[in-house]
């Protein structure tokens, strides 16, 4: 394997690899592909067409996968001097990411579609196809580092630029997938990447980053869900079960939400109320004081490990949101479920989100939160 993932950028001293570079049309993936080619690998660029009906242009920095993005990726490949193709994975993306997103919300959970895309599309569907075609690795513009071990194994670590670190959404990768992954940007800051892109003559050097959910280009998640799930009037209740308002669909709420609750009367203590629980069974949203959001422990399912499966009760730090802070925890794998105890309460953690365990900067693994333990409300 090459030595450059997680190491200073430069010519590779390892074997020459056949690399498939996933090129979104943004600056990060373009520079990642350029670095892989400069390191001496045989690189082919590919843009994933994930939308069944792509728009011609993106709206500001929202969304991605437009025809404009495809053209930007092609122009970047031309500048780098590598072959370029467009692969249609729209059907697979709809089934594994969009449909999963909708069904998770319908079940009262809060999913992370970027994490699911990495698991099911970029490092499953894409990687499987790449290996079948004779490629050695898939290269992406994620900010994370892969560290080579003396025994030939690999570890996934946080990026140098913590502000851009994306190891949280890569925690679903297993050891076999890591063995065929390249993340050339992990040792670099975003500002340095833009400067490098301009130096390389890449037109995307100043292109805005995409944000929000890529398949909801206008940012209206509630409107998107209403279109797919329809309206279903239900009650908003307080912790005692007393009705305090109505809603048009429980899917339109997330744990920890404060604004847009449309509660008819203030709380007895006059303090703001937050969404504490979402019950799809009776279409009820429970609200209460902010202290009711304090999570002390959680149970997570479908664990995926970036290396060896941890044995026994261990001490780690955990990240519970894509851009959340780390918290010290104790974690243990029992009967296929991950049981996590937090050293201090963390607010607003919802079923459906991912918990990612770290040992220092190393990613240990990821699991999907199924239930939380709170001080006043158990979900």
UniProtKB/TrEMBL annotation:
Q: Which GO terms describe its biological process?
A: tRNA wobble position uridine thiolation
Q: Tell me which residues make up the tRNA-specific 2-thiouridylase MnmA-like C-terminal domain.
A: 297-369
Does the entry annotate any disulfide bonds, and if so which pairs?
Answer: 117-214
Query: What is the protein's given name?
Result: tRNA-specific 2-thiouridylase MnmA
Binding positions for ATP per the UniProt entry: 22-29, 48, 141
Species of origin reads Kitasatospora kifunensis
Q: Which reaction does it catalyse?
A: S-sulfanyl-L-cysteinyl-[protein] + uridine(34) in tRNA + AH2 + ATP = 2-thiouridine(34) in tRNA + L-cysteinyl-[protein] + A + AMP + diphosphate + H(+)
Query: Where would you say this protein principally sits, based on its record?
Result: cytoplasm
